[in-house]
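Encode chain A's predicted structure.
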Amino acid sequence: MSYELKQDDIFSFAAAQGAETRRKGSELVFHYCPYCQGGQHRDRETFSIHLEKGVFNCLRSSCGRQGHFVELCRDFNFPLAQEQTRSWRQLPQPVQAPPMRESSLSYLASRGISQETAERYGVTARKDNPNILCFPFFDLQKRLVSIKYRNMRFRPGVDKNKEWFERDTQPILFGLQGWNGKFDQCVITEGQLDSLSLSEAGIENAFSVPNGCQGFTWLPQISEWLNQFQRITIFGDWENGRMTLLEPLLRRLKAPIRGVRPQDYLQEKDANDILRKYGPEALRKAVANAEAPQIERVRDLATVQSVDLNDLEKMKTGFPEIDQATGGLIMGQVTLISGERGQGKSTFLSQIIANALNQQDDQGNPYPIFVYSGELQDYLFKGWLDFQLAGMRHVSIVENEYDEKVAQMDKDAAAKINEWYRGRIWLYDDSLLPEEGADACAILLQTVEKVIRQYGCRLIALDNLMTAMDGANTQAELNMGQSAFVGKLKRIAMKYNVCILLVAHPRKSCSGLQVNRSLGNDDISGSGDITNKVDVVLTCGRDPEKKDAVRVQILKNRLFGRLRMGDNAISMVYSPYTRRIVSPNLPPVTYGWEKEAKAEQIGWPVGEWELVQLSEAELPF
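Encoded structure for chain A:
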């Protein structure tokens, strides 16, 4: 009867393989190809089955398996719907142990298997053809349920098959008749000769899967029994840098699983090769040393190095009140800066960048910095930062054509500043527009990773979140996109041990909020996930009660927990001529571009405090 494709069969096949899958249009994509398992480099999502046509294909060139679903089921011994209700053919039960034949004993001896072991498991040669080895398979009631044949003189390209089973017989583990009745431990191998090798070494409860590492039709009728063992050791073949059987059985069995360590294979492929070259003691050590496999993304807490939080690598923000509460800009963390439009977020961010330029790591190296400024053109960002680095000693107050006082930087100072930070601060070039339909957010994240790897950037400053998310069509899409973006930033911070500063606007409904109350975590634009995913949340805004004053709140402080909110907010002062935001409690400061500068000082230049006190200008944020 011709097979009619059913999607349920495809999903059932995936479940039987214990495969992780995802549906992509009309295809079911597998996490790993069932044939090659991703190869040595563990390539993912190279294999798929078309749910309507039934064709499958692996995109890895070294594998390249393709065909129809029916062929896939054949290769993995998966019974299709009309086959699943069939009954197995009953074999005649032996009255006595089969006689040992010289051809089988000679062959097994060449593989390190003694006559005693062969007799215990009933392995012999066929009486009608002494070149065909017979492996009898018994169930737990010690009934003969299948026989596997092996051509001991197989000639590739000449003989049709090297191994085959008695037709229509039940698949089951080999060696069950040797079970000692205890559930302390069993060992599962890929081949019958491997399980015999373990038995030869005195290891009890050594079983073998019937048909290699791909077929698992034997498992349903015996899984409940296997799951009673206190531990199951997998001793598969070592191929392409990994052990066969281990991952498939980890997905399918509930009992604790251990795997033989790679080093205990002694550069050999399987248990039989180890026995022949290194003897039974090597097998006993391999089983005794077997370890629970490392679960991806899980580690033993005892392997985590203890760290004094105060000793974590960090940069200073340059504001003592913030640094005292948060510890500074700690590597591996993401700090979110929020505040209403025109209230100083970008200036505050730029001031932190200026202060970071004045610092060095423990080896005396400056911190390279990457900046994305989505709201300011490159020359505007540069000019703003340059004024902050110059300070009042290098800024003149002149009158423009409208008789207004404006600041003008000394050209010689500007040139020195430019050379001072050359090769230390990198700016995202948004003049190169992405191609139509390109994911600008993904491009930005890729760029962040590239500048970290190639330029060694340790501080990443992104201004701001909204300008990075220009592809969303709805508020829901925007919220999801922002949440995913911040999550990826956090992973980058942890992966490369860098500081990330991210500017985000408050919600539109919070306009004018600073007059009535302070901004909170829930007021920040986007989904609530954003503030949950970052480590520190700061808000920056104008103080309505003080001229040229700025208030900074610490709304979240994951590492140390110290907050500064409401009446306890941090007060700072803004200079409209140098664009600096500083703490009024700090001594005068100059930056490292001046020959006489002291790099560790961060604070007010001489005389600027008096100028700010006299200024009548509004905050030009």
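The radius of gyration is 35 Å.
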